[in-house]
Design a protein that fits this description.
Length: 351
């Protein structure tokens, strides 16, 4: 979902990976060759993670409570990916938004001597110490999305690009409105207390700054829920009698925003969503509402985190890269899904 802040530093130093059509299959497709191929110099390619069974790996997975469609999709992607490997056992916690509870769950996984930990912290800063504890205990950590304060608390970070979400949403809207004189844009943001929201807004503002004919005339924050999206959007519609485009940070709250828009009978603007829910993609495909695009924040990152954890536990690298080790960070690309490409991305849509 969208409720997943990743630090801008990590985003900048990350290895850029585009999302693929068939969930995280693109990442795995690059990781499935374990064959030795000799190049012209006769050097052997390093071993990479393979679909073929290898050393057994027990992966501990700890995330926050699945109280949002995106977070539920994170858990499902992790389970599904692990189930596909004969050599992986996944020990997954129930999930909690309470920091002390999540720390206790991770301590239990550490004490059970899992081989690798995948952690999506409810609060990256608050859980940094438990990441450090795991690393010092010899259990490598894959830090999923919400980043720890210290790079010493994880072996690899993988997550989305919140700044990139805003940037790509802004450029999509900018190109659609390029020839509109004095175009007005409205932003329905996420929770303002979260760093991810600030990053998305910054990216959006930086993109719009390159279009001199566009002005952002209003911005209101919601709470990533259907109810908050409907309530806040109703207020925005009353305050702004006319505008040309709306960017909504999150497709869950976007469902509520669309209700408010329908109730108000407004259709003079285009809407761009965020995260990539199935409902949003269905609406884009049907092309019967103001929603014309959504910018991905793919929950398939959890499947890729399992791929990375398995490779790490088997001391393998990533196919397609020359290195013997997995990278230290992977930043997923925020693709823009439109009617033209929605069929490609539908398999990644979450409920």
């Amino acid at each position: 979902m969208t409720d997943s802040p990743a630090g801008p530093i990590a985003s900048r130093r990350g290895l850029l990976f585009g999302t693929a059509a068939a969930s995280a299959g693109m990442f795995l497709a690059g990781c499935t060759s374990n064959e030795s191929n000799d190049d012209e110099g006769g050097e052997q390619a390093p071993a990479a993670a393979s679909d073929e069974p290898g050393r057994h790996v027990t992966i501990g997975f700890a995330g926050p409570q699945a109280d949002h469609g995106w977070l539920n999709a994170i858990n499902e992607n992790a389970r599904s990916r692990a189930d596909g490997y004969e050599d992986v056992t996944l020990e997954i916690t129930e999930g909690s938004n309470d920091t002390a509870t999540q720390i206790g769950q991770i301590e239990t996984l550490i004490n059970s001597a899992v081989d690798v930990l995948v952690i999506l912290p409810a609060d990256g800063r608050a859980l940094t110490q438990i990441g450090l504890d795991a690393m010092r205990a010899g259990i490598p950590v894959i830090n999923l999305d919400r980043i720890f304060d210290s790079p010493q608390a994880y072996r690899c970070w993988i997550g989305g690009d919140n700044y990139g979400m805003g940037l790509n949403a802004g450029h999509f809207i900018g190109e659609r409105l390029r020839d509109v004189e004095n175009a007005r844009v409205v932003e329905l943001a996420g929770t303002d207390s979260l760093e991810l929201t600030r990053q998305r807004t910054q990216g959006f503002d930086d993109a719009l700054a390159t279009y001199p004919n566009i002005e952002k005339v209003a911005r209101q924050a919601a709470e990533f829920t259907v109810e908050s999206g409907q309530e806040v959007m109703s207020g925005l519609l009353q305050a702004q009698p006319e505008f040309e485009a709306l960017w909504n940070h999150d497709d869950d709250q976007g469902a509520g925003a669309l209700r408010a828009i329908d109730q108000a009978g407004r259709d003079e603007f285009i809407m761009v969503g965020g995260a990539g829910s199935k409902a949003a993609m269905d609406a884009i495909q049907a092309d019967n509402s103001v929603l014309k695009a959504t910018v991905l924040y793919p929950p398939t990152m959890a499947a890729s985190a399992i791929d990375l954890a398995r490779a790490l536990g088997q001391a393998k690298g990533v196919g397609g890269l020359a290195e013997f080790e997995i990278p230290s960070s992977v930043t997923l690309y925020s693709a823009v899904v439109t009617k033209d490409n929605v069929e490609q991305y539908l398999p990644t849509g979450f409920n």
